[in-house]
Amino acid sequence: MFHGLKLYTVHTKPGSDHSLTKPVFLREGFNWPAFLFTFLWALYERLWLLALVILAANFAIAAGLRTGLIDQMSGTIILLALQVIVGFSGNDALRKRMRKQGYIFQDIASGDSLLRAEQRYFDRLVA
Fold first, then answer.
1. In what order do the strands lie in the sheet containing 6-12?
2. Rg (Cα) of the chain, in Å, rounded?
3. Most buried one in 36, 43, 51, 122, CB count within 10 A?
4. d(CA 103, CA 96)
5. How far apart are CA 95 and CA 101, in angstroms?
6. What is the dihedral of CA 72, 77, 81, 82, to 10 degrees?
7. Residue 10 · residue 106 · CB < 8 Å
8. What pTM was estimated for this model as a whole?
9. What does the pLDDT look like over 24-62, one tens digit per residue?
């Protein structure tokens, strides 16, 4: 059964002992854990600023609901929109954090699974 090709960006940290043997593969596209668990996902991934923004947005929406500035339907739509935005931008936030940690973009790999993408990347690297 064909599930489609998935794209991964490959990142390495120059100067580390594992720069060629342990690259990091980050999937392109929508991040379901970031969508479903926005605040907890940001904390788990140590994206402190994003977690703070999500928390502040949740408090602002709750305050708007409590004071009557936002009705229940609008609050739900705003929360869902926030989750969708985090879902679409989650992997980009991870890439930005990795860049700050000294990782550099190395390549793009594709495959129907992470394992297949890794295999293609290492095949090209060896060739």
1. 24-27, 6-12, 104-111
2. 18
3. 51
4. 9
5. 10
6. 10
7. yes
8. 0.84
9. 999 999 999 999 999 999 999 999 999 999 999 999 999
Amino acid occupying residue 59? F
- Mean pLDDT of all residues in the chain? 92
Nearby residues of 80 by Cβ (< 8 Å), 6 or more positions away: none
The answer to whether 83 and 111 are in contact (CB under 8 A) is: no
Angle (nearest 5°) at CA 84 between 100 and 61:
100
Kindly state the tokens that stand for 110: 């594709």
Inter-CA distances, 6 with 2, 63, 81, 117, Å:
11, 40, 25, 8
Tokens of 87: 């879902």
DSSP codes joined into one string, 50-71:
HHHHHHHHHHHHHHHHHHTSS-
Any residues with CB less than 8 A from the CB of 108 and at least 6 apart, and which? 7, 8, 9, 10
98: three-class secondary structure by DSSP = helix
